[in-house]
Structures are given as structure tokens and as C-alpha cells.
Amino acid sequence: MTDTRTGFYSDPDETPPLVQAVPLGLQHVLAMFASNVTPSIIVAGAAGLAFGGPEQVYLIQMAMLFAGVATLLQTIGLGPVGARLPIMQGTSFAFVGVLAGVAATQGLGVALSACIIGGCVHFVLGAFIKHLRWLFPPLVTGLVILAIGLYLIPVAIKYAAGGAAKFQMEAESFGSLMHWSVALSVVIVALILKFFTNGTLSNAAILVGLIVGYLLALVLGMVNFAPVANASWITSITPLPYGFEFSLGAVIAVTLVSIVSAIETVGDASATTKAGASREATDAEISGATYADGLGTAIAGVFGGLPNTSFSQNVGIVGMTGIMSRHVVTIGALVLILCGLLPKIGAVIASMPLPVLGGGVIVMFGMVAAAGLNVLSEVEMNRRNMVIIAVSLAAGLGLNLVPTAVQYLPGVVNTLATSAVAPTALVAIILNLALPDEI
């Protein structure tokens, strides 16, 4: 119902007038746009796809298109699927480490096939997610999110310096003042807008920073518009663009991250109802949100999209505006679908020089790590919990940084052991169950 004292819409089924609803929907898109397309760019690069090439453009389009589709599953729903809350879906950073590693070593066919299977498992989790929450207290989820951020930060630095692949890092231009000037312009603009403005401009700070960095790179002659000119106006969607290739190690790794992603979605659903309606999320809403996560991920994987999850930054918009209408977010979903169907938009994004993207992901990946720390701030820092944090991070990040330390492990186990996220999560869960509470 509408709060007559504030004008806020606390009922998900209500819709503000279009003059309010459309700008609010666009605000939701602006807040998540950069974060949504970045994982596809990174995984495409890890797979060896040409930067700015048609295959990378296609993956970017699928990121936009199926983020919109997954959001519609959340806001409109389909039977038990969907929380029917204003939850914005987008491509998940949580999977980047695992999928980049799989794409680099086994190819995109294996990575996307693992996404399809992982999405199906994620969907099934919706039936009993409430019974698994005890395995993932803030200590475990915070550690996993922190590990994801710490794993990704070196990737951000490589992009900002001008490259990611080995040959690019060996080039004379790698780490040049020009590259860092462009990257830092993105960081500085994003920080200024985030902390010295408010409303839409503040929520879209990273996106505006990327635009400023892009324009600077254009002035410096770093942008190649040839892919934009060659891109068509309407996309053709291809099922299984890289075939279907099963790898047990990849499936296990993606499934483990899917469980963590599901727990995150539970948190986002709860945070949304608290922020917009001052109530707890119902079991049906939590299950529906998880079903939508999994189904959206599986469908995206079929067409070349990466796993989807709820976006926490959009929960902040609900809290800031006080507008709980799910139809506002539906408008944002339709905008994303439109963008996904226009290859010209994907080509413009793909033409973004690496240092521009690097400046953006320095902030984004740092925020992922900071989000993990924020979750851990709820945990009492006694000796038991500090030991769990220390051993879990040492195992997860250590094996990822020195993969030859486990080079003789069989393929499936080796993939999991060096993925950073999987060993961190596994060690944290085991130690949290095994170690006694301090008296």
C-alpha cells in the first residue's frame, strides 16, 4: 500500500505513475550496468577471444539480455519461480574466478556447460534453501565473498596497466603512464560522484566514470571503432554457441559457487523486504528468488550467458527511494533486454580499452572484497573464528597463487583446489563445523 505520509510504495504490486516509474527503472539499470557486463569481458579474455571481436560482443549482449530475462523471472514470476519483489538480476562476479580458470584451460564450451548444469542445481536448491542456511553463517559467506574479491583484484591491476594475457603484459606499453592516467581517471571520477553527489548520479558513479575514461581514451587514440561499424543492428541468438562439453571438475566448482550465490540471494531478498516494507521475507519469496536465480542461470548458459544472481546495489536503491514496486524493476529489465538485442551497444562496450575497464574493476572488485569484510564484521573476532579465517584464506588464495603446489592432483581435484573460492568455502565450512565454540 502507499504510505500517504511519505508517498512511498511499500506494496510490491503497486506501480508509481510512469513519469516516476520509468526514471526509477533506468536508475536500477545504471546502478548495475557496468558490473553486469564486466564478468563476460573478463571470462572472454581468459578464453582467448579477441578483445572487441564479434565473439566477445556476443557474450556482452547475452549478459544484458539474460540479466533482463532473469529479472523478469524475479519480478513477474512463473509459477513458484520468482520472489515477485523488486530484485534486479545480473551477471555474478562470484563465478568469475572459477569460470575464467575453466575457460582458459578447457574452453568456453566446458565453462558454459557447467553453468547450465550449475543453474539446474541452483534451481533445485530453491526447494530446500531454508534448510541449508545453517551451513553458511556470516563467517563462511563473508570469507567466500572476501576470497572472491581478493582473487579478482590482481586481474583489475593487470587491466588497468594495459593487458591481461601474457603477451600483453610483456609489451613495452604495459604499465605506461598513458594507461594508468586513463584508469585513474575512471577511479577518481567514480569516487567523486559516489561521495559528493546523490541520487541517480551517485548510483551510476562507476558507469559515469567509465564513460569519462572512455572519452579520455578516445582523445588519446586508444579506441578502435571498427567493431562498432561492423556490428549488425539486430542480434541473432545461438543456442549452445560453443557446444556442450561436460567436465566434472568444472561442474563441481560452479555448483559450489552456486550454493554461495543462493545464500547471497536469500540475504538480498530479506534485505529488500526490510528496506522497502519493513518486514521479513517469506519462505515463498526466498524459495522463489532462488528458483529464479537458478532458472535464469541455466537459460543464460544455453545461449552463452554467464550465471545470474541478485544485485545487492539495487537493494540499496529500494532502501534509498522507499519504492518497493516490482514493476519499476520490470521496466529496468525491459531496458536490459532491448540493449541485449542490439549488437551495436555490445560493440561499443567491447571497444572499451582495457585500462578504462581496469579503472572500473579496481573499484568494483575492491568493493566485492569490502562486502566480504562487511559480512565478517558481524562475526565475533575470537581466537576460533580468527583461526578459521586465517586457514581458509591461506588455503584458498595460497593454492591459487601457487598452482604447481598441487600439480600432481587429478584433473577434477586440481581444478577445485586452485579455484580460490572452492577451497576457501570448503575449509571454512569444515572448520566451522569441527572446531568447538570458545567458552
From TrEMBL:
PROSITE patterns named in the record: XANTH_URACIL_PERMASE (PS01116)
Top-level lineage group: Bacteria
GO-annotated cellular components: plasma membrane
Pfam families membership: Xan_ur_permease
Record's subcellular location: Cell membrane
Topology relative to the membrane: Multi-pass membrane protein
The entry's keywords: Cell membrane, Membrane, Transmembrane, Transmembrane helix, Transport
GO terms of molecular function: xanthine transmembrane transporter activity
Major location (coarse): membrane
Protein name from the UniProt record: Xanthine permease
Species this chain originates from: Roseobacter cerasinus
